[in-house]
Amino acid sequence: MRKLFTLGCSLTHNTGWKEPLCEKYGLELVDTAVDAGSNDLQVRRMHDHIINNHINEDDIIIWQIT
Fold first, then answer.
1. Which residue from 30, 39, 29 is spatially nearest to 8, judged by alpha carbons?
2. Which H or E run includes 61?
3. d(C-alpha 35, C-alpha 51), whole Å
4. pLDDT per position as a tens digit, 44-66
5. How far is it, in rounded angstroms, from Cα 28 to Cα 31?
6. Which of 6, 18, 64, 5 shows the shortest CA–CA distance to 39?
7. Is the CA virtual torsion 39, 42, 43, 44 positive or negative?
8. Whole-prediction pTM
């Protein structure tokens, strides 16, 4: 199943757009956004996903830079 990866701060974490988007397009949500999440934290989380082969070429990444 294709995945939607979201990274960001509270603007990404606390809004209700991710779940309806995943339902509409049949995506599995991988929400790593956190309140007060820094850009450094987001870079580390993305790095972990890449190193551990969690991201496939057909997955979608939405990254809200803080």
1. 39
2. strand 60-63
3. 24
4. 988 998 999 889 999 999 998 87
5. 10
6. 64
7. positive
8. 0.83
